[in-house]
Amino acid sequence: MAFNKSRIQIRLNAAIIGFILALCGQAYAFTGPSASDMPSVVEVEGRQVSLKNLSSPIAESEQTIKEGAEIYIKNCVLCHGDLLDGKGLFGDSFFPRPANFLHPQSVLSKPLSYTYWRIMKGGPGLPERYNPWDSAMPAWEGTLKEEDVWKVIQYIYTAAQERRKSKETPQAEPSANRGSEVYAKNCAVCHGDTGGGDGPGAKISSPFPRNFIKGHIKFRTTPFGKIPTDEDLFNIITEGTPGTTMPAWKHLPENDRRSLVLYLKTLSKKFAKFIKKGKTHKVVVVPDPPAFTLASLERGKELFIQNCSACHGIKGRSDGTSTKKIVNLPTDAIWPRNLSKPWKFRRGDKRKEIFLTLRTGLSLTAMPRFSPRIFKDEQIWDLVHYVQTLAPSQKPKTPPILKVERTDGALPIDPNDPLWQTMDSNFYPLGGQIIQSKIVQYPTIDNVVVKAMHNDSEIAFHIHWDDPTVDPILKKFSEVVESPAPPLPAHLRSDDPEDEEPAEEPQPQKFPDSIAIQFPVSGNSSSGKPYFLNGDAKHPVNLWQWSSYPMKAVEVNASGVDTLTTQSETSQSLASKATFKYGRYSLVIKRQLTTEDTQNDTQFRAGQSIPIAFNVWNGSAGETGSQKSISSWFPLILE
Fold first, then answer.
1. 418-429: pLDDT as tens digits
2. Mean pLDDT score of the chain, rounded to an integer?
3. Three-class SS of residue 563?
4. 597 CB contacts (<8 Å, ≥6 apart)?
5. Burial grade of 507 (CB within 10 A; 0-12, 13-18, 19 or more)
6. Of 346, 170, 177, 193, nearest to 258 (Cα)?
7. Sign of the dihedral defined by the CA atoms of residues 114, 119, 124, 125, in that order
8. Which residues does residue 558 pair with via DSSP β-bridges, in sequence order?
């Protein structure tokens, strides 16, 4: 690999630029444009609206605020979060982050007309100096009725102001009556007025909000199928569940959270029966963990393959053979946890937390308990030790710049080539495309990992992403290794050979699995960066799109989310190769740095910063067209 002074200088410059970009991104995420940036007049659905002294035409009332909350939950909560703090399910997926309405310089410090402007015009309507094409904020003009926009504004201002005052208000002793009030204000919009898990927010949630009437709580210290303790309920209210729309309510006064516990227990008859029968909780005790040893790891691996791989897969990527039978999103039978992403563990990824999940199981899911009558504590710890080796110790950070490393010699097309192991990995989060056209609210694919290199004439990208299912047609053209069914216990095995049925000819699934790398078109004469969601008429983009069927990469152009056009055959110059192993696609895609088609292609030059973004479609989940996972723009620089 080349290594010289100029390369070091480029690395240093990239680091400095990245640091500045990170700082700018943080500031932008908090403040956005000021009120002075607001135009005096905007065009909304073909009419001119003066923003000067603009006020809400709808009188504020408890009913309009409630309706505003429902509209917010259905349309805004996945990004801005249930708590209005910008920490929704996709809060970490887009840069800059969704606005935090609780920040002192956010909308509360600005007039209502400012918020109206930002909701109606979204990211594309930002002033040019704020790099409008980076923002994932949709323009809600034409999607939401104007009166609904004003109801949302009423809700945001009212709820945000209440959040600020909640810690200042003296709290009464915990009671079910107080809990009823707290529940109605904070929980009913998702869990329903009577606790049936059927609130307006249920339709955008996966997993569904908990049905409190049934009394089944996933995260307990009590055995499988048993009601939780008061402390279990209090802890889940306080800490929330990562990777879902259930936030942490730790900002509520403790007495309010204790009151919520008392009220939730009135929603199911099981708690009253428990008391009436004089029962007491049998809490699962988690012993202190033993020291990690290689012998424990080996035992844990064997236990995992035998007892867990049928659902979680050999590498823990949710691709086990049983998933085809148990996963059904419409009924809330969701994918088994991807164990290679511990930051997504609902209870937590600490050793004692994993131990407790294994011992108690998760009620109303396919995750069983590991009974102490069958599995000793030592065996559970062996499993815990092995599970922790399936993942990095912490969530990878997203680099401010994707560095395309320079190397000598030919660039490898094989994803398994050893040269790729010497390159830096770059983790990029993805969010569901919930902005335009047909959307996808809970995508399976939530990140890509990218490596890149060039040799002064070609550029190549190595990308991998986890997908629990492979397009069957890939088996006909490439290397595919799927997680096998777990072996039978020794006492059930037979020495008699089984008659194997002839393998069926692989057929493509209805929609292919696909990924696209997106760049601005170098021949674009207009100033400004394209909209990250496939550009627009004035700012087109160039995409390198690989699909599992037909299995090849093609160059595509787009000027909007639904306007993909494949380039002519004479303008195609991509080479690619893909493999699939244990729930993970790996792809290499490469091209010459420069081409003759300067009007449609991206042209690469060393030292130049070029925006890059990613689109991924999970075809087996019905994703096609605008239904996909997407990323924001990130800067790319060739060494």
1. 999 999 999 999
2. 90
3. coil
4. 567, 571
5. exposed
6. 177
7. negative
8. 541
Block residue for tokens 């509209």: 71
3-state secondary structure string, 134-198? HCCCCCCECCECHHHHHHHHHHHHHHHHHHHHCCCCCCCCCCHHHHHHHHHHHCHHHHCCCCCCC
CB 56 within 8 A of CB 150: yes
Q: Which CATH class is domain 294-388?
A: mainly alpha
Yes or no: say if 362 and 334 are a contact pair by the CB < 8 Å rule. Answer: no
DSSP state of 612: E
- For residue 418, whether the previous peptide bond is cis, meaning omega lies within 30 degrees of 0, is no
Quote the pLDDT of residue 128: 80
User: Which pLDDT value is given to residue 364?
Assistant: 85
Residue 295 in tokens? 């012998």
Q: What pLDDT is attached to residue 16?
A: 40
Cβ-Cβ contacts under 8 Å for 82 (sequence gap 6 or more) = 73, 88, 190, 245, 246, 247
Residues 6+ apart with CB under 8 A from 584: 315, 317, 464, 465, 466, 467
Radius of gyration of the chain (CA): 27
Could you tell me which of 351, 452, 458, 348 has the C-alpha nearest to residue 403? 452
> Domain 402-485+507-638, CATH 2.60.40.1230 — does that match?
no
Residue of 325, 303, 326, 460 lying closest to 384 (CA atoms): 303
Q: Please, what is the Cα angle at 140 between 135 and 142, to 5 degrees?
A: 140
Displacement of CA 463 from its chain's centroid (Å): 18
CATH, domain 176-276, list 2.60.120.380, 3.20.20.70, 3.30.530.20, 1.10.760.10:
1.10.760.10
Tokens of 464: 């991998």
Residue 303: Cβ within 10 Å count: 17
Euclidean distance between the first and the last CA atom of the chain, given in angstroms as a whole number: 12
Domain boundaries, the chain: 33-165, 176-276, 294-388, 402-485+507-638
Q: What's the pTM?
A: 0.91
Report residue 9's pLDDT band, with 50, 70 and 90 as the boundaries.
very low
The answer for residues whose C-beta is within 8 angstroms of residue 486's C-beta and 6 or more apart is 305, 306, 307, 309, 310
How far apart are the C-alpha atoms of 444 and 238, rounded to whole Å? 27
Residue 395, judged by CB atoms within 10 A of its CB (0-12, 13-18, 19+), counts as middle
**pLDDT band with cut points at 50, 70 and 90 for residue 24:** very low
The reported pLDDT for the residue numbered 170 is 64
Backbone angles phi, psi at 154, to 5 degrees: -60, -45
Report which DSSP code applies to 514: E
Q: What is the predicted pLDDT for the residue at 26?
A: 39
Q: Which CATH architecture has domain 33-165?
A: Orthogonal Bundle (1.10)
Which residues, listed in sequence order, are joined to residue 462 by a DSSP beta bridge?
Answer: 451, 588
Instruction: Please state the rounded mean pLDDT for residues 380-384.
Output: 98
> What single string gives the DSSP state of each residue in 393-444?
SSPPPPPSSEEEEE-SSPPP--TT-GGGGGSPPEEEE-EE--SSSS--SS-S
3-state DSSP call for residue 592? strand
What is the share, in percent, of the chain residues with pLDDT greater than 70? 91
Both tokens of residue 599?
């009007």
Two domains, one topology: 33-165 and 294-388? yes
